[in-house]
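Sorry to interrupt, but I need a hand with the structure work. Please put the record directly below this note.
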Amino acid sequence: MAAPSAAEQTTPKVGDDILKPVCTTEHRVDSFSENTADVQEHVVDFLEKEVGSDIKSLRNVVGLLDKVREEKRVLEEQVVTVSSCVPPKVRAAVRAAEEATSSVQELLQRERLISNTLQQ
């Protein structure tokens, strides 16, 4: 098996950074513009690599589009799954905290009762 060329080693693949946020709420507007430019450059570089200047290779765009759509669909499913799992987990954590608080209050009440009994 041949070693990858320098271009193959440095060229990111589709999906390599798909989970990296382009912009978070803590970025300033100018940072958003920079990130958008980076994304656009990445897309152009990727298309040049995949399609190149050969007009006949445009047939590959359909397969590429299908692949990107499938990746998008998978990511959307993951978002739906995560967002639907979070509320039950939060509810369970709140319920566990309430039960722990109740148990502590019961133990304190029993401790007072025992303490009063011993003082008599």
